[in-house]
Design brief:
The protein is α+β, with helices and mostly antiparallel strands. It is built from 7 helices and 9 strands; from the N terminus they run αααββββαββαααβββ. A hairpin with a 4-residue loop joins β5 and β6. α6 crosses α7. The longest helix has 15 residues.
Length: 224
């Protein structure tokens, strides 16, 4: 306890238990939530794009490995439609290994300035090689080089070693075109569940869940 007090005194760290905010930016009711979770997500994402968020397409991706151990990380949404939500990564990364063992995942969007979050769950599969090729060619050249240079999720000797590999990769391709690495590409999560959360006063938030039923969706209001 003395050591904890000393650290708090030295860093002037606020006590997390004292951090509070009463949410008052909006509300969500049966009339505004509608019956279509894709339409509501599209409207909320449009709002997020206009809200000045640093990364409005940032989403937490949660996966589970073959032993049942969960892990989560932030990735960037790169497209969505009624077929699902897409992102791109190294197929030899930890998240990819998790998805190989258990092809189900969860996504979480936190739109802080709007006091909203969206949870999405479903099965995941790789998108086509053609779609991955097309997206890879749209990336900045530096990001293309990085996809070749980084052995994502695996131990590396140092930052200097990573920088050296980046430089060597850049020299190898020169000014020529850079093709997509075979170990890199896209995934798509096809939702079978959504939850929309709107912050409200006194922690009495508005929550609506959607679960897939045959070709439609069942909607319920959830207690905060």
């Amino acid at each position: 306890m003395l050591e904890e007090a000393r650290i708090n005194e030295e860093t002037e760290m606020a006590d997390p238990a004292d951090l509070r905010r009463d949410y008052q930016e909006g509300e969500l009711d049966e009339a505004t939530v509608g019956e279509d979770p894709f339409a509501l997500f599209s409207a909320w994402f449009t709002d997020a794009l206009g809200a000045g968020l640093v990364e409005p397409n940032a989403m937490t991706l949660a996966t589970v490995d073959a032993t049942g151990r969960p892990s989560a990380r932030v990735v960037l949404l790169k497209g969505f439609d009624r077929d699902g939500f897409r992102w791109f990564t190294n197929y030899e990364s930890r998240k990819a290994a998790d998805l190989q063992a258990n092809a189900k995942a969860a996504l979480l969007f936190w739109f802080d300035r709007l006091e909203r979050q969206v949870r999405i769950e479903g099965a995941v599969q790789r998108i086509s090689a053609e779609a991955s090729d097309a997206y890879f060619q749209s990336r900045p050249r530096g990001s293309q080089i990085g996809a070749w240079a980084s052995p994502q999720s695996r131990p590396i000797e140092s930052r200097a070693a990573l920088d050296a590999e980046e430089e060597a990769t850049s020299e190898r391709f020169g000014d020529g075109p850079i093709g997509r690495p075979p170990h890199w590409g896209g995934y798509r999560l096809e939702p079978d569940a959504f939850e929309f959360w709107q912050g409200r006063r006194a922690r009495l938030h508005d929550r609506f869940g959607f679960t897939r039923v045959n070709d439609g969706w069942r909607r319920v209001r959830l207690a905060p």
